[in-house]
Design a protein that fits this description.
single chain; about 90 residues; mainly beta
């Protein structure tokens, strides 16, 4: 149903690189791997996310990846998001 949690996935960043720093607006690429559950199934997830620092200090990002079950079923995904840096240096 709408608003229902579908699962929980957590992991770690496996790579980070700066794609551009033109005009003082950095663009970075982050890759990650993760594990968890989705719709009650154990899954592994991996993807790459590109984020651009905007003039107002917020971040805009787009990413894509693949989620796989232990039985071999796969889901591909594309995502977008907007965020900002928090006090600890992370992103919300």
């Amino acid at each position: 149903m709408l608003g229902e949690q579908l699962g929980t996935i957590s992991g770690e960043m496996t790579g980070l690189r700066v794609l551009s720093a033109d005009g003082g607006h950095a663009v970075t690429e982050s890759s990650f791997t993760a594990t968890g559950t989705l719709l009650g199934e154990a899954v592994k997830d991996m993807g790459t996310y590109e984020s651009a620092l905007r003039p107002d200090g917020t971040l805009y990002g787009e990413g894509q990846g693949i989620t796989m079950t232990q039985a071999g079923a796969t889901v591909t995904w594309h995502g977008t998001g907007v965020g900002h840096f928090n006090e600890s240096g992370g992103v919300n």
